[in-house]
Amino acid sequence: MNQQIPSQKQDSLDSQFMTAAIDQANIALQNGDVPIGAVIVYENQIIAKGYNQRHQLNDPTAHAEIIALTAAAEYIGNWRLHNCSIYVTLEPCCMCAGALVLARLDRLIYGCDDPKAGACGSIYNIVQDMRLNHRLEITKGILAEDCAKLLQDFFKSKRNSDDNCF
């Protein structure tokens, strides 16, 4: 399974749902956390949202993807999220990529690559590893510039402040 090339209609939907993920990232930003957001879509409807809450919850696992997965499983009433897609502003890390495989989503759509910790093609490709029992289709680069700018601005502001804990 390689990167999916979306149709024009799918590309429009992907941009719409990525905009919703960016909205979630902005909530993380307002709360002082790394601005990463995620939404999960089932039958072209957003069923779950998440944003980074590591500082807010003092929880290293409170990534946007994990929070959205928990909400989607509650909404569906099953931990298996078949026929669901997740939209994330940044390429998921190893922990989140593993959770996506375990949740059995169909698609991963993300904004910008994470060359330092990305586990969906940059450093590893956990979500398409043939040794695992499930794989996700990947579409990347949706609104990549907008997603990257959020992160760049956040880390630039942290480098220029006394609160340099990231």
Provide structural commentary.
The protein has 166 residues and is of the alpha/beta class. 40% of the residues lie in helices and 18% in strands. The chain contains five helices and five strands. The protein has a five-stranded mixed beta sheet. Helix 1 packs parallel to helix 5 and helix 3 runs parallel beside helix 4 (94-103). It is globular and about 45 Å long. The mean pLDDT is 93.
Order of helices and strands: HEEHHEHEEH
Rg from Cα: 15 Å
Low-confidence stretches: none
Overall spatial form: globular
Helix content: 25-40%
Q: DSSP helix count?
A: 5
How would you sum up the major sheet?
Answer: 5 strands, mixed
Strand content: 15-25%
Class of secondary structure makeup: alpha/beta
Give the strand line-up of the largest sheet: 2-1-3-4-5
Q: Compute the separation of the termini in Å.
A: 34 Å
| Multimeric state | single chain
Beta strand count: 5
* Nearest-integer average pLDDT: 93
Write a brief structural summary.
The protein contains five helices and five strands.
Q: Topology of this structure?
A:
Blueprint: H1 8-30, E1 37-42, E2 45-51, H2 54-57, H3 64-76, E3 84-90, H4 94-103, E4 107-112, E5 137-140, H5 144-159
Parallel strand pairs: 3-4, 4-5
Antiparallel strand pairs: 1-2, 1-3
Helix pairs in contact: 1-5, 3-4
Please tag this protein with its features:
five-stranded mixed β-sheet; 166 residues; globular; alpha/beta
